[in-house]
Design a protein that fits this description.
The protein has about 625 residues and is an alpha+beta fold. Helix content is about 55%, strand content about 15%. It is built from 13 helices and 18 strands. The strands form four sheets. Strands 7-6-11-10-9-8 form a six-stranded antiparallel β-sheet. A five-stranded antiparallel β-sheet has the order 2-1-5-4-3, with helices on both faces. A five-stranded mixed β-sheet has the order 13-15-16-18-17. Strand 10 and strand 11 (about 295-300) form a beta hairpin. The longest helix is centred in the middle third of the chain and has 103 residues, at about 325-430.
Length: about 625
Amino acid sequence: MDAAEGGSSTVHGRRRLLVAAGVVAGMLAVMLGLDRIADFAARRWALAQVEAGARTAAALRVAVLRSEIEKQRSLPFALAQDPDVRRALASQDAGLFLALDQRFEALVARVRAGVIYLIDTGGHTVAASNFNTPESFLNSDYGFRPYFRIALAEGRAEHFAFGTVSRKPGLYLAQRVEDAAGEPLGVLVLKAEFDTLEEEWRHFSEPTFVTDARHIVLIASEPAFRFRTTVPLDAGERKVIRESLQFGDAPLDLIDLSPVPGDPGLKRVRLPGRSKREDFLEASMPVPTTDWTLSVLAPTAATTALAATAARASAALLGVVGLGSAGLWRTRRRRRARAEARQAEARRELEERVAVRTAELSAANAQLRTEMEERRRARLAIDALQDELVQANKLAVLGQIAAGVAHEVNQPVAAIRTFAENSRAFLDRGDAGSAARNLDTIAALTERIGAITGELRAFARKSAAQLEPVRIGAVVDGALLLLRYRLLQNDIALAVVLDAPDARVTGDRVRLEQVFVNLVQNAAEALAGRPGATIRITSETRADTVVVTVADNGPGLSPQVLGALFLPFTTTKPQGLGLGLVISKDIIAECGGSLAVESRAGAVFTITLPRAS
């Protein structure tokens, strides 16, 4: 009996051990499953956080890069309009080129550009900001460069390339320089370099690079990435690029960004020369106004390891809860508290990084909005200044023609007085019919005075331009009403031959009258004291335009004056300001037309205006 009981006890003991072993094995299996699930979920969450941070970083760096490019773009256009640049190219004067060398040198220091230089139509550099350095571009032949050929043919060009002299890459911004007739004189080039931007990117843990449409790396925080590709190039395309010298002798080989298998929704890669355990998540964004793409490679190892550690600790904690007893409850609580603290710290650090980068992006956006508002205010100020110049020109003209207008008014006033006295005499004699005829004449004279003073008030009134259909005959008559007496006083014959006085053009009547007053008055001053002086105004009505010419038989204009006649402060009159013709040309341009001048047996001004529908 005792032996039987002993055997039974041994069997039960073994069963309990088997059951306990089964329970432990089951709990271990559950814990292992929980561990794997927690590890997977934690890594997915961590990668999502890394992706959000990478996109924020990419957006911020795109904004900074775009701001840098836009700042540099405006300077070549402004310099191409500069009279000194045009004069130097037109004259090929060595002294003018030297002055431009010094001016470009000062500009480069202020705007942080790489170099500014001027190329003639033959492709040779005639002025450069680096003229006094060993790497001077002076006399270099850049006729083979695509940015020169494209800008000369199309007006402007942008081209990223490796410098053949400076041995430094940069973005070449080229703008064609034209003379007054629109003929090309040369090309002005600004080279924007991004060394400072690349240096700033190196301070971040995320490698950053910019590729063009062919997937060639142009700008990079990693020097080994520059002029390599992220997509394989075929041998033919690589040969064409290398022969163009756009990237010097760069091999244009492939950067081995090995893809990491995993979630297809995320682009994870490994970098050459880095540990196989260290992978990066790539976030790419286009750079507006260019065909570039900016990419940020955010490291995932630290974040995912931290999240995985926290998840596994949580899973282990849950397993301990399932296996533990009351004596282990306090230990479990401490471990969970520590795990939660680590998770909270990880989230806090991630949120701080996102907040900092979001603030930087907001600051960049605010700066861009401020610059846009400043440009808008500058445009409004320029428009207001132009209106002020137009008004000042009208008042100056009124001062010169005031005597003629006064005479035009005094004549009918004197006649009114005479007819009024005669009417009184007729009434005293009882001749009501003659008195009535005199009164009709007085009424007609008052209408003439009203027309003259009304034209004078309309001409002097300050108002914004209002484009509308207007008769060309009415415009010419209004201008001549103010000037007719001055022409008679100076013994200047006036011939007006309009083929279609009722033809309508698009424009502002008062401002168009101002143009004709300026032109006729300039002709009268040129004809002062000349025998047989004549001003002739003719028109030719075409299908879409009306062409009006104002010609005189004066001494004409010299070639030097003709070349600069529409530039501000160019005048042949001792007391002139040189603004009348500039304002006149702007007024005609506002109406959609053009103003041209030539010298043949006197000065001939040709106004072309669009016909009103």
